[in-house]
Amino acid sequence: MACAAALGLLLAPRVAAAQRTVYERLAFATPQEAAQAFLRAWRSQDFATVYWILAPETQNAIAETYERLLVEPLVGRVPPTANRLAVAEEAMPILAAREHHNDMAWLFDFMMQVGRRRGATPFVLPEGVEAGTPAMLPDGRAASKVGMLEMLLTRSPAGHWRVLGVFGPGADRSQLPWGIGP
User: Fold this and answer.
1) How many domains does the chain fold into?
2) 181 lies in a domain?
3) DSSP letter at 140?
């Protein structure tokens, strides 16, 4: 009986272990996986997931930009028809009134949603365009074309691939995450 049970275990199809946490679901082994997940999250306007796919140095840059009360480097240039001050006031929630005020992913999602409502986006992803095959760069990072945009990817300290930034033509790559300066 024990032999039959052991044989059954050996012959049973292997089921992949469920990915229990967001950290496990976002542990990308390749730059292509990270790029595709980023595009899916961006297109579905799940900016909290976008935030978690970003590289740690990009997350730090977002937090520093937020602390300096700058909106446009994150949400994109505010159109001339929109009131810049109103966008900034709406995008910077009154922290005491917000349930998730210590969660930078929530704050990033909130700011990006405000930007979208007000017509400010850092870039537009062309419909149906997917990330190209990433090219490895000499510094160990990877670059992937998405239409006219370039997505730079890097490894996190844990070895998982993350998006460093997405840049349009002529963007300042030193300004994370989208190449838009203050």
Assistant:
1) 1
2) no
3) S
